[in-house]
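Hi support team,

I submitted a single chain yesterday and got back a structure, but I'm not sure I'm reading the token output correctly. Could someone confirm the output below corresponds to the sequence I sent? I've pasted both exactly as they appear in my results page.

Thanks,
R.
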Amino acid sequence: MSDERPDRPPSAGLLDALRVRRNATVGVAAGAVLAVLVYLVRVFELFGPVAGTQRYPVVGPEGWFLLLGFVLASATALLVTAVLTAATAVRLSRRL
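Hi R., thanks for writing in. Yes, this is the structure output for that exact sequence:
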């Protein structure tokens, strides 16, 4: 076996053309904003009439909703990044 790697075209040009870095930044920002808004709504709801009627093992309600907020932010960031990158790819393919 040879230790040499075959020549491959650089992928940095593709990533730059698809503006993946910008799309990921927008996706992370959108996910974080959505998760914070949903978390704030849920936190203020905990002080309402249903407070104390549910059980949250191990980390309590704040911990569970922080974890759910992280999952929501991550999923939203991934979705927004994928949609923006796909839209950029379609736009570039139509231009060519």
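A quick pointer for reading it: The mean pLDDT is 83. Let us know if anything else looks off.

Best,
Support desk
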